[in-house]
Amino acid sequence: MARLAQTHGLTDIQQEILSTVRDFVDKEIIPVATELEHRDEYPQQIVDGLKELGLFGLMIPEEYGGLGESLLTYALCVEEIARGWMSVSGIINTHFIVAYMLKQHGTQEQKDHFLPRMAAGDVRGAFSMSEPGLGSDVSAITSKAVKDGDEYVLNGQKMWLTNGGTSTLVAVLVRSDEGHPEGTAPHKSMTTFLIEKEPGFGEVRPGLTIPGKIDKMGYKGVDTTEMIMDGLRLPADRVLGGTTGRGFYQMMDGVEVGRVNVAARGCGVAQRAFELGVRYAQQRHTFGKAIAQHQAIQFKLAEMATKVEAAHAMMVNAARKKDSGERNDLEAGMAKYLASEYCKEVVEDAFRIHGGYGFSKEYEIERLYREAPMLLIGEGTAEIQKMIIGRRLLEEYRFQG
Asked: DSSP 3-state assignment of 1?
């Protein structure tokens, strides 16, 4: 099948990686995704396959056993995986963000300790900012770390941990007033801690509980959980980077690349929705001809394909900007906003093309219709993206009157 969203200027290695991932998606993910999703079953066999392909170490430097690839390569792989089943891309996304934060901000001891095992997929990462009453206001975090001798004691409740149960390493953002006088700006008194734990639910280490999976409308298979810290003790060397008060900036750096990832997921889901829509339009007949021959359907397909292309181009631009070492919060915000909105619209158009059959669980588009809304809120809502975009535009186009 001819494909939309081709990426020009890729190296032979990048093309080989993407070809391998695409083949894996077509053979190992798409045939089983809907069945596993309906059962809300963790795709262990698929995850094992991704581990064998080396995708858990895709962006981890070669010196730590990874492939040392770029954010662009990773984003294009995520796009392919989300095309097969978005939940699988979620399994590797939080792992990737934690690995990226360690690579960028960790001490040498932390890198040596975690990155080789993360590259092999033996340590799986999750990251945690949100809390039950928090929403988009990160400055309102109430979970807290208090210094006690050579250790820190953490207390508080966190929310919306992707891979909360299956992960063995969680990067968590909490308040840490130690060393920061009263009146310090909230974002300057936050610290990221690295929590090692056992996989599973219940008490996964003394003082740390993962209550169980949150039942969701879509985005099933992957476990989304709460996390409760009640007297959790951590040594001082589990402060990311070794210095308190830097957690907000570390997390925002991780979220920035995470937004490129969400944009890539939106592109992948939209591509799959287009594929399903254009195929069904040629199979379904009304009034004596395939519905694809009706002008109204052709207009819809044209709009869908254009949105897929536009979202892909913006996602690629954001990834390449980050890879160049430049600030990319504007591009990442735009890509995440556009790709998630267009994904929702393309999926809905494919759903409409399917007519009544789109409402049946026998058809794949039903699953995509429930998955797309998560992208509208993951890694920051559309409203948050527009705030970021607007502020950055005013910085770039400041009136000198």
From this structure: coil
Distance separating alpha carbons of residues 225 and 163, to the nearest angstrom: 8
Q: By C-alpha distance, which of 320, 330, 328, 346 is closest to 267?
A: 346
HSE, CB side, 13 Å, CA atoms: give it for residue 68: 6
Q: pLDDT per residue over 66-81, tens digit each?
A: 999 999 999 999 999 9
Residue with token string 């901000």: 105
The string of pLDDT tens digits covering residues 165-210 is 999 999 999 999 776 666 667 778 899 999 999 999 999 999 999 9
Residues forming beta bridges with residue 273, ordered by sequence position: none
Q: Which of 379, 383, 395, 396 is catalytic?
A: 379
3-class SS of residue 157? strand
Is residue 37 annotated as part of the catalytic site, yes or no?
A: no
Q: How far apart are CA 221 and CA 36, in angstroms?
A: 7
Helices 247-283 and 329-354 cross at an angle (nearest 10°) of: 30
Q: 162 - beta bridge partners?
A: 224
pTM, two decimals, is 0.93
Which amino acid belongs to residue 186?
A: P
Burial label, 394 (beta-carbon count in 10 A; 0-12, 13-18, 19+): exposed
For residue 15, the tally of other CB atoms under 10 A from its CB is 12
Both tokens of 355, joined, read 């007519």
